[in-house]
Amino acid sequence: MGYDLGVDLGTTFVAAATARDGRVEMCTLGDREAVVPAVVYRTEDSNLIFGVEAERCMSSDPHRGARYVKRRLGDPTPASLGGVPYPATALLAGQLRDVLDTVTRAEGEPPDRVALTHPAGWGPYRRELFEEIPRLAGLRNHVVLTEPEAAAAHYGVHRFLGEGGIVAVYDLGGGSFDATVLRKRRGIIEIAGEPDGIERLGGIDFDEAITHWIDFRYGAEPAGPGLPETESSATVATLRQECVRAKEALSADMATTIAVPRLGRLLHAELSRRDFETMIRAPIESTVGALVRAVNNARFEVSELSAVLLVGGSSRIPLIGQMITEEIGRPIVTDAHPKHAVALGAAAAASMRTAGPGPRVPVVAGSPGDTIRLQALPPRGVSRPLPPGWAPEQTPPARSRRRRRLRRWLP
User: Taking Cα atoms as reference points, which of 173, 227, 228 lies closest to residue 38?
Assistant: First the structure.
């Protein structure tokens, strides 16, 4: 029995889900976990490993690994793994191939079709680069859609969204923020207006805020003098993991304790939810402003929204729901596992069918005929602007040349 696959290549986590006979469920990619860290590590024999195993290896030798690769897409500077440069496109393709191999081993056969997602706020250049990833990973039968569209498919917005209804998707992940408005017309859920967002704002920036708070309180030196560089780097990596754990704990608890290595001692800093919210209030305010702009871009008033869908792991921060409610005053819709929403919706998109002009995909739990329209990538041959920071001599090579050059980086 065949199946379709949806993959969410996130900034901090990677998730995948399968769709079979109308059922959509998460895949196990790591140690009994549905999501795995978006980490890559280059071994001593020059192989690339990913996920949980890569994170374990990075804890002892961070210089041979990389995190947050998705944020590097479009950056002309390659990531350095043990002194060897790797383009972000090649690392993401390797990450995707690792997911495909893991799922294929578990299912006993490869998927019939794969759907991949990307932030709605990406411009044409980054979307073109994203197109390279499935090809480099060996995929030929795939579909690409935005993360808000996938989230809308998962949540089955038609269940509370009537004809002409409008819903806003607040998508705050590990590395970026997207605000998108979806509208239902004639049984089709489609993007209304232009999405808004903040390209470099996500959970990793909140982790960094906690790190700065610790440095301010205890000083910036992570370890005592005379420590080897690898040991010092491992100490920094351990502190970063502690900050991530603290951020997640404060979504449920009013305070948490962070183990802080300083000058050969292990200190314990207590961080309250109130102090954490003070650190991140300004950037959260900017996301709410972007959400309102997205509604205005679609030529609606916030009072016309049926609901706001909260998507992405960072959307679990309680302050976010509070601030959206205070600013917009519309119902908030979330899920017990917001990290899963995009992958589950992408799995439904992998079962795409065409009905009339433009590609469409059935809503996960919809009535017969309910569909969601996919946002198409720019057609081939269309002139695309260069990314910010590119000088004339840094003009990207032609697609065929770039593809040949990137293949040699894949494991």
Answer: 173
What are the structure tokens assigned to 112, written together?
């019939």
Q: Whose CA is closest to 342, among 178, 195, 230?
A: 178
How far apart, in whole angstroms, are the C-alpha atoms of residue 276 and residue 270?
Answer: 11
Which two structure tokens, joined as six digits, stand for 154?
């998962």
DSSP result, 134-188: HHHTT--SEEEEEHHHHHHHHHTGGGT--TT-EEEEEEE-SS-EEEEEEEEETTE
Q: How far is CA 353 from CA 154, 251, 327, 349, 350, in A?
A: 17, 39, 38, 9, 9
Neighbours of 56 (CB within 10 A): 13
Nearest to 182 by CA among 345, 316, 295: 295
Cα separation, 320 vs 265, whole angstroms? 36
d(CA 62, CA 231): 9
205 CB-side CA count, 13 A: 18
The DSSP symbol for 254 reads: S
User: Rounded to whole angstroms, how far apart are CA atoms 349 and 77?
Assistant: 33
Q: Which tokens sit at 175?
A: 């590395």
Whole-model pTM: value is 0.80
Cite the DSSP H helix spans in 219-272: 229-249
CA terminus-to-terminus distance, the chain: 30
Edge-first strand listing for the sheet containing 371-373: 332-333, 307-311, 166-172, 177-185, 188-198, 371-373, 359-362, 353-354
Is residue 108 very low, low, confident or very high in pLDDT (cuts 50, 70, 90)?
Answer: very high
φ, ψ for residue 198, nearest 5 deg: -130, 115
SS (H, E, C) 99-112: HHHHHHHHHCCCCC
What is the Cα–Cα distance from 199 to 155, expressed in whole angstroms?
Answer: 24
**Amino acid making up residue 191:** I
Tokens of 81: 């793994």
CA distance 262 to 218: 8
Distance, CA of 21 to CA of 339 (rounded, Å): 23
pLDDT in tens, 151-164: 877 876 445 567 88
Distance CA 323, CA 285 (A): 8
Q: Which of 131, 173, 157 is nearest to 312 (CA)?
A: 173
Please state the φ and ψ torsions of residue 154, each to the nearest 5 degrees: -65, -50
pLDDT in tens, 223-254: 444 545 555 667 787 888 899 999 999 999 99
